[in-house]
Design goal:
globular, about 700 residues, 25 helices
Amino acid sequence: MQIKNVGKMDLKTVEQQHKELTEKIREYNKAYYDEDNPIVSDAEYDRTVQELLKIEREFPELSKNSVTQEIGGKPAEEFKKVNHKKSMLSLANAFDMEDIKDFFERACNFLNIPEPNFTVTIEPKIDGLSFSAMYHNGKLQYVATRGDGTTGEDVTQNMLTIKSFPKVISHPNLPEYFEVRGEVYMTHANFEYLNKERLEKEEALFANPRNAAAGSLRQLDSRITAKRNLNYFVYAVGFESHEIFLKHSDYLIFFKEQGFNVYHNIVTSSNLDDVEKYYRDMTLKRSDLGFDIDGIVIKIDDLKLQRRLGSVGKTPRWAIAFKFPAMEAITHIHDIKIQVGRTGALTPVAELEPVNIGGVMVARASLHNRDEIEKKDIRIGDYVKVIRAGDVIPQITSVILEKRNSTSQPFKFPANCPVCGSEVYESPNEAAIRCVNRITCEAQIIEYLVYFCSKNVADINGLGERQVEFLYRNGFITSVVDIFRLSKKNDASLTKLENFEGWGKKSVSNLFESIDKARIMDLDQFIHSLSIRHVGAGISKLLAQTYLTLNSFLNAMQKAALHPQSEEYIHLINTNGIGEKIAHSIIEFFQNKKHIDTINELLQYIEVKDYEVITSTSILTGKTIVFTGSLTISRPEAKAIAEKLGAHVSSSVSKKTDYVVAGDDAGSKLKNAKELGVKIIDEQEFINLANG
């Protein structure tokens, strides 16, 4: 389905679906990366991401600054930070051979070749924790976790507890800086031994080997790491001052020669059938490997092609993960509870008879919304099929109707908020049902406070869900502004925070230090902290890039809120990646006087820094470009070239457009450019500008 064949109402529906999926994924990411507490299974997460990616493939204009471009989570405060010299990306996922064929087809389209004329390596996808090992003049300089893809945690001492890990490497043409990337994992045997020890000591058990490996590598005391018997495989070269080899497979051979652990059965082939054969073989072997893999990875072997293909968002175009199907079990639903989130969404959660799925006991499953319950006809008392792929909370796939009790009744969604008793409402074209009481609903207030303090937003260490709920229920904080008044309030209070159980003098002091650090926020971070519906980290960054200063942003948003057809509103809605639904959500937010009052009050306690524009000598930096017509290079490659040089690529022509790059058969966009007096250039002129 192409956008040009879709009516206005249909497009609005698609945009709404895109926003809902984005919101879900952000919530899943927050729980997984920032709170170490996954709320859905890997399978459900992958399914949701695939739904979003399917929409973005059909409607590319919705993919700008998508949540699918974000990587991992922020590094923990306790570790020294390491800035990766080359971003550590994550892989797009495939779930069947059609997805693999699509991967090859997309690569061919990008490269403008009729069919694959390249080889690929086919490797297992180790289910562990990614790491980067940097060597300087052949000596190990540091080992770091992936973190958020840009900044990781220094875990050098912990990695060196793995005795087989090389401290020195050599080659006649070795670069000054040479980075090796891999995955740390824990074997099933070591995992079982570790959990048995923890059980005897009455310590919390690890959910699975991946969590155990991640927790072990990220220990502050390397002596603990040494006792965990970690393993690793290396799988790629990262940054290097200059190339040694031209193929990925040659680097794998080099790694083996240097003493690194490389998986023994990696296939290089140009035959698509070999991908399917390798996948089938590894599916059969996975339970006998002694460690977890969750799929296979296909990589284009030629590094020159890898560089040309580049990446889209957080994922490279030259590699893909072919995921295994999730594990399945049958269990019983005891009850269905309703949870209320920070946006007022009522989320049903199934309370399950605990069941062992692939070695992990699971007892809950998110049912997402009323539509999900009605579509699958899920009822209290039902026996259901559940799947998981490494997490504790599974996905319910279907009901076993033949086991249903004859007295069973459909689940009735509440007409009132289970927390504050207010009415609930369902917006048109939206699956979520929400509590109308955004101002005083205790659940929404607490959830927003937790959200504001999380690592991806204000990043206040020491204010997790438990601490925020305690402070709220004991009257220390009732709003985000109160967080920045907490120290003074505590000083003036007769009942000091440090006198409560679980709040020692040191922890309170550390908390106040963390709050003070949060008093200076980046513009995109501040916009993200406002918790505007559909405005996550990606859209917040896009808005910061567009308006650059807080005053410019606030003035434009308030003018747009007062006059929906104003120039500011038109500019907002035409910003690539925003669209009507997000713009409407932003305007709705700024039409609420309480939100404006909160912002003004908050700005008395914090400083918001201007957005830092990329420093570049390119003539395209900061320019808005629109591509139209047929080009000799593919449209994705043209867009990638422009954005790499700091340009903003828009899907529509306006007075703010700097260049329209017109190819053959250019249509209405070229006409609009002429009418508006926008500079029109051809493809060769664009290439000349890009080359400086």
